[in-house]
Write a structure and sequence with these properties.
- There is one protein chain.
- This protein folds into three domains: 278 residues, FAD/NAD(P)-binding domain (3-Layer(bba) Sandwich); 86 residues, 2-Layer Sandwich (Alpha-Beta Plaits); 75 residues, Glutaredoxin, CATH 3.40.30.120.
- Helix 1 runs parallel beside helix 4 and helix 1 runs parallel beside helix 8.
- Strands 1, 2, 6, 7, 8, 9, 16 and 17 form an eight-stranded mixed β-sheet that branches.
- The chain is built from twelve helices and 22 strands.
- Helices cover 32% and strands 22% of the residues.
- By secondary structure, it is of the alpha+beta class.
- The protein binds flavin-adenine dinucleotide (FAD).
């Protein structure tokens, strides 16, 4: 039997497929579209996702296709320098178009042995005590132990499970596309700068050889955003805001997106789970959605694998929702705030000026960028050391560096005392005795997602903590 069916071969589903394969599960990804989309939604990876790729030995592939940009300016597009002392070895945005991210994650998942079937739409889900039956549009029935809906904002899985998706509907819509223009580059830049003084949601960004990424507010909110807008609609809206359509022609692709903000009531119904946009949608402000989905997958993968491989402690799989639902709620909140700050109305523009002044304080700037980059997240592991629940940044060791030790996706005891032991859990937790430049602690236990589960030098205390995340001793 298939262990996990993943509905949706976007970044969340593909990341999850790779994570599950690290633990030897049989994984099938069903993707509705026969071919990958050329539409470029996300433009980059934030620091925490860059770390995630590094932790799994994938960063080299991403760096080869991306460009590094400063972190400043990502909160509501308010132009500021990068904050100082950000707690990461990767204090940059890795600019990389989403189709490339999707392709790299697909390559990794299939290299590790996941099966990706394109042109397969899931239309039905039923579950019983032993497993899940998934129905495809062509009538095929498939059985698996678990199913994860990574099928985007209009998730079929979420609807079939009857999971509520409360929040606000789209109030504005934006046209987005790539096209050539006949206007010269200097005139385009000057006109855009002028329009953006009063309309921050307007932009033409040069890509290559006269091709621009065009963003312009739509006239209304459409019923079905899966239907691409015609070029003429772009031209009309460009004329409305800029007085010219810049001679736009020869589009590569055209799309539209809304600003609905919604969060699934639950992430799990029995053997079915939700991740990524299927669980949460929000406007793209700050560039967080793909990152959030990839990080959902990073949190869920090892827990679901532990459940299926039979060693998951009580409640481990449910901790996926306990940990990730509040993170998504926080992202929804910060995007709502950013959308207000992007409004052209006089009140919000005054608030924007005030927030901009406050961001001149480095602490404020850093706090906001930690939110956007997800480096400030602390899961609730109960009281104790200040590192508990936080993800550990990459640090230098006596030999090599921390993230190089995490490619396998197991837990890790990093120990400079040499007196500790993970006997009984050695199949789930790697024990590395080495020195590390920081933090100033004798030893730390990291979960497979790099979050700190224990800090100290006391063996009985360690043995008490190990079962919380890694189950009973073998
Ligand atoms: C204009 C724009 C800009 C953005 N910029 C950024 C950014 O800079 N940074 C960022 O982090 N995020 C950004 N985002 C958000 C990001 O694109 C999404 O959050 C991300 O794609 C979500 O990934 P996902 O895998 O969860 O869902 P999707 O990428 O939506 O993937 C879902 C997949 O499921 C498939 N599918 C759907 N239904 C079925 C079915 N029934 N059966 C089988 N397959 C199905 C779909 O074909 C699709 O391939 C942006 C979004 C927009 C609109």
């Amino acid at each position: 039997m298939i262990d996990v069916i993943i509905a949706g071969g976007g970044p969340t589903g593909l990341m999850l497929a790779g994570e599950l394969r690290l633990h030897g599960l049989r994984v099938l990804v069903l993707e509705r579209e026969a071919e990958p989309t050329p539409v470029v939604r996300a433009l980059g990876l934030h620091a925490r996702s860059v770390e995630v790729m590094d932790q799994r030995g994938l960063l080299g592939r991403f760096l080869a296709h991306g460009r590094q940009y400063p972190l400043g300016g990502f909160f509501a597009g308010i132009s500021k320098p990068s904050p100082e002392r950000l707690d990461t070895a990767h204090p940059y945005v890795l600019g990389i178009p989403q189709p490339i991210t999707d392709r790299l994650l697909a390559e990794r998942a299939t290299e590790l042995g996941a099966e990706l079937r394109r042109g397969r739409e899931l239309v039905g889900v039923e579950q019983d005590e032993a497993g899940i039956t998934a129905e495809l549009a062509d009538g095929t029935l498939l059985r698996s132990r678990y199913l994860v809906g990574c099928d985007g904002g209009r998730s079929t899985v979420r609807k079939l499970l009857g999971v509520g998706f409360p929040g606000e509907p789209a109030r504005t819509e934006t046209l987005l596309g790539e096209m050539e223009v006949t206007e010269d580059a200097a005139t385009v830049a000057a006109t855009v700068a002028e329009v953006r003084k009063t309309q921050p949601r307007f932009g033409l960004g040069p890509l290559d050889e006269g091709v621009y990424r065009v963003v312009v507010p739509a006239a209304g909110v459409s019923e079905d955003r899966t239907v691409p807008p015609p070029l003429e609609e772009f031209k009309q809206r460009l004329r409305t805001f800029a007085g010219t359509d810049f001679g736009a022609h020869s589009p590569r692709w055209l799309s539209r997106f809304g600003d609905a903000t919604r969060l699934a009531e639950r992430y799990r119904v029995g053997r079915a789970l939700l991740a990524g946009d299927a669980a949460h949608v929000h406007p793209p402000t700050g560039g967080q959605g793909l990152n959030l989905g990839v990080q959902d997958a990073f949190n869920l993968g090892w827990k679901l694998a532990a459940e299926i491989n039979g060693w998951a402690p009580e409640g481990l799989l449910d901790s996926y929702q306990t940990e990730r639902h509040p993170v998504a709620a926080d992202v929804l909140d910060n995007t709502r705030a950013q959308m207000e700050l992007l409004s052209a109305e006089p009140g919000p523009r005054s608030v924007r000026r005030l927030v901009s002044e406050l961001m001149d304080f480095d602490e404020v700037n850093r706090y906001l960028i930690e939110k956007i980059t997800a480096t400030g997240i602390r899961y609730d592991f109960g009281g104790g050391h200040e590192l508990l629940g936080r993800r550990m940044r990459d640090v230098k060791l006596g030999r090599g560096r921390l993230y190089e030790l995490m490619h396998h996706g197991r837990g890790l005891l990093l120990d400079r005392t040499g007196r500790l032991s993970v006997a009984g859990w050695a199949d789930r937790v790697e024990h590395v005795v080495d020195d590390f430049e920081e933090p100033d602690v004798p030893a730390m236990l990291l979960r497979p997602d790099g979050h700190v589960a224990w800090v100290g030098d006391d063996q009985p205390e360690l043995v008490e903590r190990l079962p919380t995340w890694f189950g009973a001793a073998g």
